[in-house]
Amino acid sequence: MKYLSGVAALALGVAVAAGVPAGPARAAPQFVIGVSNTHIGNSWREEFVCSIKAEALASGLVSKIVLANREAGPSEQIADLRTLISAGVNAIIINPSDRKALDGVIKQAAAKGIVVVAADQAVSAPEAYVVTSDAVGYGRVGAAWLFKQMNGKGSIVEMRGIDGTPGDADRKKGFDEAAAKYPDVKIAATTFMDWSNEKAAQQMAALLASGKQFDGVWTSGIDYTVIEAIKTAHKPYVPFVGADNAGFIKQLIDYKADGLVGVAVSNSPAIGAAGLVVALDVLQKKERPHLTQITPAAWDNTTDAGVEALKALYDPNVAPTDPVYGPIPKYGHFTAAQEKACKGPGE
Amino acid sequence: MMGAGRRNDGVADRLKTLVIRHPSLFGMPALLVVFLAATVAIHPDFNSFDAQSLAMAALPLAFAAAAQTVVVISGGIDLSIGSVMAVANVLAASTMENVGFGQALLLAALILCAGALVGAVNGVLVVVSRVPDVIVTLTTGFIWGGVALLILERPGGGAPDEFLDLGTGTLGTPWLSNSLILLVVAVAVIWVPVRRSRLGLLIYAIGSDRTAAFRSGVNIGRSRVVAYVIGGLFSSIGGVGLTMTTGIGSPRAGVLYTLSGLAAVVIGGVSLVGGRGGIVGPVIAAFVLTLIPSDLIFLNIDPNFGQVIQGTLIVLVVMVGGLATLMRTRK
Fold it and tell me: Interface pTM (ipTM) of the complex?
């Protein structure tokens, strides 16, 4: 009797195991992941962190996220990284405040066997894995589109990010590469809007009030409030380079009839999740290159097909200044809903 | 207090007098012990690595607090401290990048002189222009911030390894960070002689009651300038300290230290109206404030609550300080 029930149990077990669908994780070792972000009050960075939490939840491999999230410079980020090391994490995902300053701490972390991934911006430490959106490509793609729209003539307004950060420096590099091919295009004004919606809108309002003439606008990814500033000032639209923010995508669809021509160059905050994907692979001893550069996609509204693509991208439930949700293809298993919920494992 | 009890002034009585006269000297270390105990309770694995982290992270804030303390005691305020730190930081990192250790030390000494000079400029402007020091130092803060950007447009530079080790290394035991030694030595060497001298007395006098000091023949202007010079000196040491602990120069490095340093000054028991307090309290307060963000990370609380806690701490300290004053006057 006992023998028969044992066989039955075994058969049942095999049947159950055969029926279980394969998820993203087979084994279930529980990793502790540290996250360090030094720019807050910014919806891009918020989604960056939320994408990591969502991916941690979806992967099934992470037991806990230890989050160091505060407005800080390199000195404070070094302190935060040391705290994460002290907390005994298995991997750290960093959005670095400086390319070089963190090298010492990263070296210490790597010496303790911690996998360090710099996501969104690069670091110079050889021990770190770097996962970035090709920021040089980002600058180049948008700028090339803009100069072509302007037929290579005229002057533009260049609205950059935070001076001194690797992200801003790389995008400038791509911008300059494209500009080299259009020597007749001049820069009417360069501003640093520090990736702040309010600041960018103020700077555009000031520019419009000054009466300075420009024939195009290149921005480092802050768009919705700038377009609204142009609309409020009753000035004509000029070719505009922005990012995949929900409000801008709607503006590209709605204001096309009023003459707005623009391109949304993708700079998905889910690059954070991409960093976690790489970290988890390395923790599971799978091969990953030290540098992963993801090419930015771009959507413009100059063609009907383009407008249709933008309509597919748009989500009315996302705030206008927030980037659209969802993972980068091949670099995330989470859903847009999980990213919006922003809850990590155990929360 | 000094009357009938004088004959029987035992150790207990003397200690009691000391505690009541200098509450911050005992209150602050007690507060630090409480926070350290909480930290160890939250993170039982607290080891020498964490002790080093604390010293390295507290160093710049402690110097910002020291600089602000001297100026506040003299009855003024300095809102340019963070920018002066940034200038010293980028000057150090940009000039020390490919030099030897000896040269780096010489450059550091020169930068300290520059810091004192910057402090003098602040002081002279305040005295000569008769514009309130809040406005003068706010303005000079913007100017020095711009100067920092002119010296080093984006973070970079470096310094020789032995120089960096002065901030990041340890001496004797891994529990004793060089940062801690640097802090104690710099504060002692600069402040103790001043405190015990006539100059120190003058600084306290003009902060305590400027009119009375003037009537006693004190050169108010000169004393105020000296206070700002010492402040500039501490700020520049803090900036060079930033170079040691981060290994780079960052033109925006000082942004957070001005107000956090002021918070440390208030928590440390120095009265913002001037004339009262010592330097030990604010320096220890800097350590307390540095513990808060990392404790919050361990507790998985949003580290930005650190600012809420910092504010609450200031309110509590001011209330307790007011209570202590009340008890003192009643006795």
Answer: 0.84
